[in-house]
Amino acid sequence: MTKFVKGNEAVVMGALYAGCDLYFGYPITPASEIAHGAAKWFPELGRVFVQAECETASVNMMFGAAGAGKQCMTATSGPGFSLMQEGISYLAGAELPAVLVDVMRAGPGLGNVYPEQGDYTPAVKGGGHGNYQTFTIAPASVQEMCDYTIKAFEMAAKWRTPAIVLVDGLQGQMMESVTLPEAEKPRPDFSDWAAEGSAKTRPNLVKSIYLDAAQQEQFNVHLQEKYARMREDAQGEAYLADDADVLLVAYGVSSRVARTAAEELRRAGVKAGLFRPITLNPFPREALAAAAKDRKILCVELDAGQFADDVRVQLAKAGLGAEAAGVEMIHRMGGEVVTVDAVVARVKGM
Amino acid sequence: MAIIEQKGMYGEFPRCGKAHARTTHYCPGCGHGIINKLIAEACAEMGLQDSTIFVDPVGCGVFTYYYWDAAHVSAAHGRASAAATGVCRARPDAVTIAYQGDGDLGAIGFNNAFQAASRGEHFGCIFVNNSLYGMTGGQMAPTTLEGEKTTTTPFGRDPSLTGHPLHVCEVFNQLQAPTYIARVSVADTKRIYACKRAIRRVLEIQQKHQGYALLEILAPCPTNFRMDAMKAAKFCMEEMEREFPLGTFRDLENGVAGVAPTAHPESDVLAVKPVPQFPTCNDLFAVPDGIDAPSPENDPAVPERRFKFAGYGGQGILSLGICVAEAARLEKRHSLWFPSYGPEQRGGSANCSVVVSGTPIGSPAVDHPDVLVCMNQPSYERFAADVKPGGTIIVDESVPTDVPPPAGVTLRKVPAIRLAEEFGVPKAANTMMLAALRKYKVTGLDDASLETALVASFKKKPQLVEKNRELLRKAEAAFDA
Predict the structure, then answer these.
(1) Could you tell me where in chain B the CATH 3.40.920.10 domains are found?
(2) Which residues of A touch B341 (CB under 8 A)?
(3) Terminal alpha carbon distance of chain B
(4) N or C: which end of chain A has fewer CB atoms below 10 A?
(5) Domain B297-478 has what CATH class?
(6) Helix runs in B183-272, H state only
(7) Burial class, A219, CB count within 10 angstroms (exposed 0-12 / middle 13-18 / buried 19+)
(8) Residues A114, A190: one domain?
(9) Above 60 in pLDDT, residue A294?
(10) How far is B412 from chain A (nearest CA, A)?
(11) How far apart are CA A87 and CA A83, in angstroms?
(12) Over chain A, what is the mean pLDDT?
């Protein structure tokens, strides 16, 4: 079944096919269509929609629902995402699967409702307290907003971790064709650890507290080992990169601007290519390194350089110190989007 | 000291990290120990241990999972009522009990608790009020008595600076949804028995799924009162009860009314629509709310075409864009639409961008449109200069075009607004523009696809379909070649 829907609506459709049973959320532009879709479709399917009193409540409701062994989600934008950071840390600390969608808007503070990618660091590096990570995935199309929301649920369940779907206001509002899955995913069984109100789960305890320092350290080590294993699910995509002289690196909506720029540059005789991380954490480091070796690199992004800094770190960790040192950036902020013309001009000058 | 086996509690408490531990972490004379025992006992006596999910707080009650033999979810500080909302919504057949203190519920988590009560969530909230923060070292809580000395009110709580004690039951009793609200105490034997009955009542309401129940329990905290157990109990019975009188504020199932229910007049407009049966995702989304079009296919021979539609909000600019995007889908093209959004969409100018291509679309932004459709002057002034050489601007004749379009751009002025008014359908100016797009062959799409898309856009107003078809033809005939 193919439909023409907004990215925000595709997220809800994906969540429903993924077997998400509960939605908790607080309205915020430019993510509101996710709440609107959820408010209609969750009850129509016999599932639960709760409009929370604030984002702090939404994320803690998720803590309860996930703790009770059900797949659940929320969606928000920057200010709400900031409020949720404590709760995300608790979800990670209690190893609870849950999916959060951040439809990024411009900041800091109230900012405005136009697209930015300024939430990169809190969404990718663990924005709350403590040594935790999230599984963070960055769709670039409406189809992917459906597909990767489903993937976020799979990864959240597989790794018992909060998963973040990171998009921006433009992606949330834009309409494209989406082909829906053929069938709903079966519900995962969480009865080994969840508090489900059953005889089997009566001994279960969902918590993030380890009063003893040695136990807390042991738990931290366990988490870090888990995150190291999570790297097997890193995903990236290279386009026109095989023979490129200049490699554009971008995610989300920026990657689409970069894609058009790469095509234009090719038409103008400049060998440009694109590498797009699909998962931002785990970062597809090896795939990036393979595409980036001996290339000039230009990051295209809608932030102050958070993404480019991470690309430098990833390249350096992959042993490409020279490439890392040479990473350049073209960016806009505040709701402005980098234009194709600007990328083309910049690459021609490199 | 030998501890008698306690109903509803684990025989030993290994979760506290000590082997064979059988004593609780509570201080001598603390109310929590008694309350923990009463809850465990009631839960066991009522046969609810398999079906109960406890939501534990942060505060002195944080370690109830050491003791109660049932499933636990250990929540963040202040958030037990929010977490309990998630638990009871996820497991409506379970018995969900949140356990919270007066800093946890009364301060940081007050709104979460209050809103959960207001929604009538199906859980019981046991709220332990000892008039201060216990675990963090005896600071003032919202429930601290006037004049009471705490570590953050060393001169006694001064109402002129810190307000008066917060009466949680009385505030919650203003709400309509709760089923049960009561305040009890554990300061002496008589009160402990009454407390046990109230706890059973809370569990019974949950067992029967009768809604939200709040039980406030006044509890002594000898350590932070800086008193021995007897004096602390006396303080609890005298000073605290003077401020917080005991009683059942409501027990709706037992005929104790709280606030008088508001009379809701019958209303068709405000009627809640029941959802009687639950389809699958495929059933739900099979109902076409747009065009049932095939998936896009790649055809590199079809060049990319970028459109910008702009005008005032209410002129149908956004739906005109969707119409073109949907027509492209009918031809298996990759198709993308996005609107100006945010405060912009609520008054003033509106615009949307459409990209149609035979290959996957990169940038969604339309910086240089091939086609610009303009229905007002600000839009012309804003976008005309960006149109690609070889492109076309279709503008309503009412828009002054003193500033000429860029070299190589064709300007078409059409009487869209005037014609729509003459045809008696002023709202159809966008259909007039669609007619212009067809007439001047600037979309690269078949006339039939555009018409099918137009018809589909009136799916919810079928009575307008024929009228708009007719308008489309009349307009095309009226426009200059």
Answers:
(1) 297-478
(2) 29-30, 113, 169, 173
(3) 103
(4) C
(5) alpha beta
(6) 189-207, 222-225, 229-235, 241-243
(7) middle
(8) yes
(9) yes
(10) 27
(11) 8
(12) 97
Element at A99 (helix H, strand E): strand A98-104
d(CA A260, CA B138): 62
Residue B344: the pLDDT is 58
Q: What is the CA radius of gyration of chain A?
A: 20
CATH of B14-254, one of 3.90.1150.10, 3.40.50.970, 3.50.50.60, 3.60.15.10: 3.40.50.970
In 3D space, the residue among B104, B19, B33 whose CA is nearest the CA of residue B63 turns out to be B33
In this structure, which amino acid lies at residue B6? Q
Interface of B with A in 197-256 (CB under 8 A): none
Pair A103, A37 in one domain: yes
Q: CB of B167 within 8 A of CB of B185?
A: no
When the pLDDT of each residue in chain B is averaged and rounded to a whole number, the result is: 92
Whether residue A30 and residue B343 make contact (CB cut-off 8 A), yes or no, is no
Sheet holding A236-239, edge to edge: A236-239, A272-277, A246-249, A296-301, A328-331
Q: Which residues contact A322 (CB under 8 A, 6 or more apart)?
A: none
Degrees, nearest 5: CA angle B284-B288-B294: 115
| Amino acid letter, residue A329 | M
pLDDT at A158: 98
Residues A198 and A222 in one domain: yes
pTM of the model: 0.94
List phi, psi (to 5°) of B301. Answer: -70, -20
Query: Do residue A246 and residue A220 come from a single domain?
Result: no
Residues 16-55 of B with CB under 8 A from A: 17, 49-53, 55
- How far A269 CA sits from the closest chain B CA (Å)? 19
- Distance in angstroms (rounded) separating the CA atoms of residues B248 and B182: 4
Q: Which of A29, A114, A211 is facing B17, going by the closest CB pair?
A: A211
Query: Mind giving me the DSSP string for A137-193?
Result: E---SHHHHHHHHHHHHHHHHHHTSEEEEEEEHHHHH-EEEEEPPSSPPPPP--TTT
Tokens of A57: 């409540």
Backbone dihedral region for residue B156 (phi beyond 0: left; psi -120 to 50: alpha; all else: beta): left
Q: Residue A295's domain spans which residues?
A: 235-348
Say if residue B287 is exposed, middle or buried (CB neighbours under 10 Å; 0-12, 13-18, 19+): exposed
Q: Measured between beta carbons, which residues in chain B are less than 8 angstroms from residue A257?
A: 362-363, 365
Give the Cβ contact number of residue B259 at 10 Å. 12
Alpha helices in chain A (DSSP H): 7-18, 32-44, 55-67, 78-93, 120-124, 142-159, 169-173, 213-230, 252-267, 285-292, 306-317, 321-325, 340-348
Contact (CB<8Å) A45/B115 = no
User: Average pLDDT, stretch A97-123?
Assistant: 97
List B residues 358-397 in contact with A (Cβ-Cβ < 8 A).
Answer: 361-365, 367-368
Q: Of the residues A232, A253, A278, which one is the last residue of a structural domain?
A: A232
Put simply, the answer to whether A173 touches B325 (Cβ < 8 Å) is no
- Alpha-carbon distances, residue A22 vs A95, A252, A287, A299, B270 (angstroms): 18, 26, 35, 37, 25
How far is residue B291's CA from residue B283's CA, in Å, rounded to a whole number?
16
**A41 interaction partners in chain B (CB closer than 8 Å):** 284
Q: How far apart are CA A165 and CA A123, in angstroms?
A: 9
Cβ contact (<8 Å) for B362 and A94? no
Reported ipTM: 0.94
Please state, in angstroms and rounded to a whole number, the distance separating the CA atoms of residues A306 and A288.
17
